[in-house]
Design a protein that fits this description.
The structure holds two protein chains of two kinds. By secondary structure, chain A is α/β, with parallel strands linked by helices. Chain B folds into two domains: 182 residues, Thiamin diphosphate (ThDP)-binding fold, Pyr/PP domains (Rossmann fold, 3-Layer(aba) Sandwich); 128 residues, Rossmann fold (3-Layer(aba) Sandwich). Chain B is globular. The chains are: A alpha/beta, B alpha/beta. The complex binds thiamine diphosphate and magnesium ion.
Chain lengths: 405, 324
């Protein structure tokens, strides 16, 4: 390995006891798993008997929308990162590198489907129509949620890893009951997003057991971005993660997570499979987190720049651009338009972020229960008396609250 | 004597434990190459190897459950939970197994597992990263629960926890990780399960632990300017609780305020209030008062300053106590 490729920070990836090395060997010895790929990193199409036919459904505008969404969400990622650096957000969770996995799967969902994300699925949020500024509320420290999931069927971010996979299965069990009791109900499916790291949590196992047992209409969408903070995916699974599906008794598909066409096709297939009543599917999107885990993370502590470079060459946007240009589906004006829209988005995000009202603790009291709770009422009254005991309290609290509580 | 941060002191305490006890090992998420998200285990994997400093798969039930098995086999696992709010997937293993195996086996088996949990708020973070769940564990017999508040205690208490034959949960005040202090590396001073009077006084007693210790000291200084002499006790251990030190103080001052970041309802402060009311009934000149978090999920970062007990909240309670 060339000296220049080594990160400058002292770290200890090398050595005989290094988990990654040992486990990578183990994986190398494991049977290869087929990975669905329709568009390779050079922008060339490849044929797949099952999934190529799905391309027929795509018109030029749809193909362009894949690119537009991926470019939009990458720009969003850059702007949110900048806002964090400027102190406007407490933290940011970047998604760069995972655009195809998120836009491809998100665009495959139908309005009646319901999505349970983890915390990095900004691209999926975009495809569901969530106002991107609202995604920033959690990271600005003014909300634990930020949007109304009922508007878009895009659930709130869940920070305790893997718990939402069970919620997804339960939601899918509800859909089954609705369909059984109402012949006019629209078939729907649920998508549960989780990472390679989260796949080790017991909740994922239980969710797959339940999903299989009840044949629930749920698609487990695992973004294997190769890292759980500093821990390589080989620590979570010695064999391809997708192989787990077989043990539960439902189909599993590994897809090139940087190929938006393949992700879209595989996701459509899986969602249709689930909606048709045929039961759950596991999709493993093979992708890479190009940036840090969060803005608080420093990847030079645990991974090699060379690895990042290898994956940068598989950039999901670049290969789609190559393809679109080759097929004459876009011109320079298309890309200029996207850049201009990105500038506008950046301005909007900044303005919206700075305009976000700082919440008042009184609102936090009000949100604990649906029905009045005497202890909450008593403590709230105490806080109000306490705050009023400070001479300048009344105005400053009202100011912070942007007026009335 | 040497000066270092609390984070570094724990790091040194862990290093000493790994050196002195060949059966000790560290387990957790991101504790190896990264050195933990707070760098508390920095450099330890390099020094002791991947068998002694284990980056586990991402599963808290897995970490605690396998630590129990290792303990049954004679090892002394020291587990790191990445943040307070992420201990709960392991809660089953902690409360139904770790806490009870000694009793279940009529003392034949012991599970000397240490669980380190960075806890508490004041760091401007997102949900689940600022909680104080100590009462949930204190309620479970079979667990010992301690919380160091300074570098010296951090250095020694992690080593004492590791040497304890019972399971010990160490709640580490994460917002104080970078607070520096002197360490006497020759003498721990106190037993880890004893409280310490850290500021003498005569008019009232304030009991705190972990992250609120500097707040209570600042409140005592502010009270002094108003002519009130406040005794401050760093509880250090939540289970067992050193009622002796607290009641000795209250017998003298006649007033007690207990403060913690955790919600007051069902909290550790309620236990102290009840016990001290029984022990010191005739010495008390006011009811025992509690200052703590409210009955709500830990609020969003921009609100936490109104949730966390601060000097003003302690002084307000002091005023109320003195008014009796
Ligand atoms: C139950 C639980 N344990 C630990 C954490 C701390 N944590 C946050 S993200 C993360 C790594 C997650 O990796 P992965 O599931 O692969 O998702 P990615 O971040 O790569 O998208 C960890 C350990 C958590 N959020 N929840
Ligand atoms: Mg990952």
């Amino acid at each position: 390995m060339a000296e220049a490729q080594l990160p400058t920070t002292e770290f200890d990836l090398t050595g005989p006891d290094d988990a990654r090395e040992a486990l990578a060997e183990a994986e190398a010895g494991a049977p290869e798993v087929h990975m669905v790929q329709l568009l390779d990193e050079h922008g060339n199409l490849h044929h797949d008997g099952t999934f190529s036919p799905y391309l027929q459904r795509l018109d030029a505008e749809k193909l362009r929308s894949f690119y537009r969404d991926m470019a939009t969400i990458r720009r969003f990622d850059q702007e949110a990162t900048a806002l964090q650096r400027q102190g406007e957000l407490a933290l940011w969770v970047p998604l760069t590198g995972q655009e195809a996995a998120q836009i491809g799967s998100g665009q495959a969902s139908e309005p009646q489907d319901y999505i349970f994300p983890t915390y990095r699925e900004h691209g999926v949020a975009l495809t569901r129509g969530v106002d991107l500024a609202q995604l920033l509320r959690l990271f600005r420290g003014i909300s634990h949620g930020g949007w109304n999931p009922k508007d878009t069927n895009f659930h709130l971010y869940t920070l305790v890893l893997a718990v939402q996979t069970l919620h997804a299965v339960g939601y899918a069990m509800g859909i089954q009951r609705d369909l059984a009791s109402d012949p006019d109900a629209v078939p729907a499916a649920v998508m549960a997003y989780f990472g390679d790291g989260a796949s080790s949590e017991g909740d994922v196992h239980e969710s797959m057991v339940f999903a299989a047992s009840f044949q629930a209409p749920v698609v487990f969408f695992c973004q294997n971005n190769h890292w759980a903070i500093s821990v390589p995916s080989e620590v979570q699974s010695r064999v391809p993660l997708v192989n787990r599906a077989a043990g539960y008794g439902f189909p599993g598909i590994r897809v090139d997570g940087n190929d938006v066409l393949a992700v879209h096709a595989v996701s459509q297939w899986a969602l249709e499979h689930a909606r048709s009543g045929a039961g759950p599917v596991l999709i493993e999107a093979f992708t890479y987190r190009l940036g840090a885990h969060t803005t608080a993370d420093d990847p030079t502590k645990y991974r090699l720049a060379a690895e990042e470079d290898k994956w940068r060459a598989k950039d999901p946007l670049v290969r789609l651009e190559t393809y679109l240009r080759k097929e004459n589906l876009v011109d320079d004006a298309f890309f200029a338009g996207i850049r201009a829209d990105g500038d506008e988005l950046a301005g909007y995000l900044r303005k919206a972020t700075l305009a976000m009202t700082v919440p008042d603790i009184r609102a936090s009291f009000a949100q604990v229960y649906a029905q009045a709770h005497p202890l909450v009422t008593e403590e709230l009254e105490w806080v109000e008396r306490y705050q009023a005991s400070f001479p300048d309290a009344a105005e400053s609290v009202d100011e912070r609250n942007g007026g009335a509580a | 004597m040497t000066t270092m941060t609390i984070a570094k002191a724990i790091n040194e305490g862990l290093r000493a434990t790994l050196k002195n006890n060949p059966k000790a090992l560290l387990m957790g998420e991101d504790i190896g190459a990264l050195g933990g998200v707070y760098r508390v285990t920095e450099g330890l994997k390099k020094e002791f190897g991947a068998d002694r400093v284990v980056d586990t798969p991402l599963a808290e039930a897995g970490i605690i459950g396998t630590a129990i098995g290792l303990a049954l086999r004679g090892y002394h696992p020291i587990c790191e939970i990445q943040f307070d709010g992420f201990v709960f997937p392991g809660f089953n293993q902690i409360t139904t197994q770790l806490a009870k195996i000694h009793a279940r086996s009529a003392g034949q088996l012991s599970t000397p597992v240490v669980i380190r949990i960075p806890y508490g708020g004041g760091i401007g973070s997102i949900e689940h990263h600022s909680e104080s769940p100590e009462a949930l564990f204190a309620h479970t017999a079979g667990l010992r629960i301690i919380s160091p508040s300074n570098a010296h205690d951090a250095y020694w208490m992690i080593q004492q926890a590791a040497a304890c034959p019972d399971p010990v949960i160490v709640f580490e005040p994460k917002r104080r990780y970078w607070q520096k202090g002197e360490i006497n590396t020759d003498d721990p001073g106190l037993d880890p399960f004893q409280a310490r009077v850290i500021h003498p006084g005569t008019d009232a007693t304030i009991v705190v632990y972990g992250p609120l210790v500097p707040v209570a000291l600042a409140a005592a200084d502010a009270a002094e300017e108003d002519g009130h002499s406040v005794e401050v006790i760093d509880l250090r251990s939540i289970s067992p609780m050193d009622f002796e030190t607290v009641s000795t103080s209250v017998e003298k001052t006649g007033r007690l305020i207990v403060a913690h970041e955790a919600p007051t309802f069902g909290g550790v402060g309620g236990e102290i209030a009840a016990r001290i009311s029984e022990r010191c009934f005739y010495a008390l000149e006011s009811p025992v008062l509690r200052v703590g978090g409210f009955h709500m999920p830990y609020p969003v970062a921009r609100v936490e300053e109104h949730y966390l007990p601060d000097v003003d909240r302690l002084l307000e309670a002091l005023d109320r106590a003195l008014a009796y």
